[in-house]
Amino acid sequence: MTTLVRPALSLMLLMTLITGAVYPLVVTGVAQVVFPEQANGSLLRDDQGQVRGSLQIAQAFQGDAWFQSRPSAADYATVASGASNLAPSNPALASRVDASAAILFTAEQGPVPLALLTTSGSGLDPHLPPAAVAYQVPKVAAARQVPVQALQGLVEQFTLQPLVGPPVVNILALNRALDQMAPVLK
């Protein structure tokens, strides 16, 4: 019996040490050397060094002076992140989308882009398609009293083309640049 148990326990201990300690430490060390910013959360800091958010997690912005992120089923809380789990046929989803569309709708611009009405799978996606950001440009320009063309240029500057997938705009980075370009009038 001990001839079977001893090697099994030794192998279990060895694999626990390798997969539970050595491998995570090696991966963390390599990540810190090769990708230090990403390994530490892609944090965005203000001029005083205070953390204002992460480029990987959406945030809520209040008011017309800011570009708005996608809606979040978890109210942008990382602990409870996730989709709403409402099926497309669920009346509650249709009601929520209709209510959001009524708030965001502007007759001159046509239908509200779907990305501004539906949550992402995680509820924390910090990116929007350029069309969803462009839909918000006139409202933000009016609130900040800046020319629409200036904001369109800023949106183009912050439009990213990932290796895979369609172009996206990081809303937190865009709003930070917007606040530096044209601070909110008080």
From TrEMBL:
Protein name per UniProt: Potassium-transporting ATPase KdpC subunit
UniProtKB keywords: ATP-binding, Cell membrane, Ion transport, Membrane, Nucleotide-binding, Potassium, Potassium transport, Transmembrane, Transmembrane helix, Transport
Role noted for this protein: Part of the high-affinity ATP-driven potassium transport (or Kdp) system, which catalyzes the hydrolysis of ATP coupled with the electrogenic transport of potassium into the cytoplasm. This subunit acts as a catalytic chaperone that increases the ATP-binding affinity of the ATP-hydrolyzing subunit KdpB by the formation of a transient KdpB/KdpC/ATP ternary complex.
Topology within the bilayer: Single-pass membrane protein
HAMAP family: KdpC
Subcellular location: Cell membrane
Lineage: Bacteria, Pseudomonadati, Pseudomonadota, Gammaproteobacteria, Pseudomonadales
InterPro entries (alphabetical): KdpC
Entry's family note: Belongs to the KdpC family.
Annotated source species: Pseudomonas laurentiana
Binding partners and assembly: The system is composed of three essential subunits: KdpA, KdpB and KdpC.
GO molecular function, one term: ATP binding
NCBIfam families attached to this UniProt entry: kdpC, PRK00315.1
Top-level lineage group: Bacteria
A single Gene Ontology CC term: plasma membrane
Main location: membrane
